[in-house]
Design a protein that fits this description.
The chain is an alpha/beta fold. The radius of gyration is 19 Å and the shape is globular. The two termini are about 35 Å apart. The model has no long low-confidence stretch (mean pLDDT about 90).
């Protein structure tokens, strides 16, 4: 069962014997880009760590899984990342016994920065109890189709509000998106070079030993609330140039009809309604 942990950009996967905390996109070291442009912003890693520790203390999970983009630099790592990332995870180990990272598009060459006890998971995702998780910059594994609920990051979803005076305010949001199960499964099998023999259901049983259940996708806000994002309600038309990640650019998820929720749980409507 997936529980969104209001008012945080975090969720808890609860089973009978285990509790796994999910966060996404902390982007440690994002201040480097501003510093290179002459804008000095002190390291925010401590604030990110303190927020995460407060959630760990409150909910006492058995494991922590980060859905990608631990660091900000895409390939190389800056000097501050070589300091901040090892220190970040060494401190986390005092509060949660098991830490795993689903690799994101910013996580190239991340391994040297991590303590040995931190596990790196494939970018196409894993199954945690009955929830399938992946970062979102690549197609997920067909094995995740066994889960009714899928969870990804990568998008940093936000909406923008304007008051009558024209003042602009952005807010992070959760997205809940319906999935066209069979069409989505066909695409994932094709992307994995698996030929469909007979039917999608038979092919999934033969190759993965699973039954097709995937019907909903949750898109997590970035755990780093200093980061920006593309305001979804200011995009007039969705397509290949408007959303990031192959899943959201596909026709097999109903992004336009997705339900949007603020971090405090307030339902603010569907994306189509907000765009209007």
């Amino acid at each position: 069962m997936l529980n969104v942990l209001l008012p945080y950009p975090a969720a808890l996967v609860k089973a009978q014997s285990t509790r796994t905390l999910l966060i996404s996109d902390p982007h440690i070291g994002w201040e480097l880009e501003l510093q290179q442009k002459g804008i000095y912003v002190p390291s925010q890693t401590g604030k990110i760590l303190n927020k995460l520790v407060s959630i760990l203390l409150e909910h006492q999970p058995d494991a922590l899984v980060i859905l990608g983009d631990v660091k900000y630099s895409v390939v190389s790592s800056g000097f501050s990342e070589w300091q901040d990332i090892p220190d970040f995870f060494n401190k986390l180990k005092s509060y949660v016994s098991k830490i795993s990272i689903v690799k994101g598009n910013h996580d190239a060459n991340l391994e040297p920065l991590l303590p040995e006890s931190v596990e790196l998971l494939p970018a196409n995702g894993v199954v945690i109890e009955d929830v399938g998780v992946f970062h979102g910059h690549k197609w997920p594994s067909p094995a995740l189709l066994a889960c009714k609920t899928l969870v990804m990051g990568h998008l940093h979803p936000m909406v923008v509000f304007r008051d009558p005076a024209g003042c602009r305010m952005t807010q992070q949001v959760w997205l809940r998106v319906s999935v066209k199960s069979e069409a989505f499964a066909r695409t994932l099998l094709h992307k994995s070079n698996i030929k469909i023999v007979g039917s999608v259901e038979k092919t999934l049983r033969k190759n993965f030993g699973i039954k097709l259940k995937a019907s909903e996708l949750y898109i997590m806000p970035s755990f780093n609330d200093f980061l920006g994002g593309k305001p979804l309600n200011e995009t007039k038309k969705f397509g290949a140039e408007s959303l990031i990640g192959p899943v959201l650019r596909s026709e097999y998820v109903h992004v336009d009809d997705s339900e949007l929720y603020l971090l405090d749980g307030t339902y603010i409507g569907t994306l189509n309604q907000l765009r209007t």
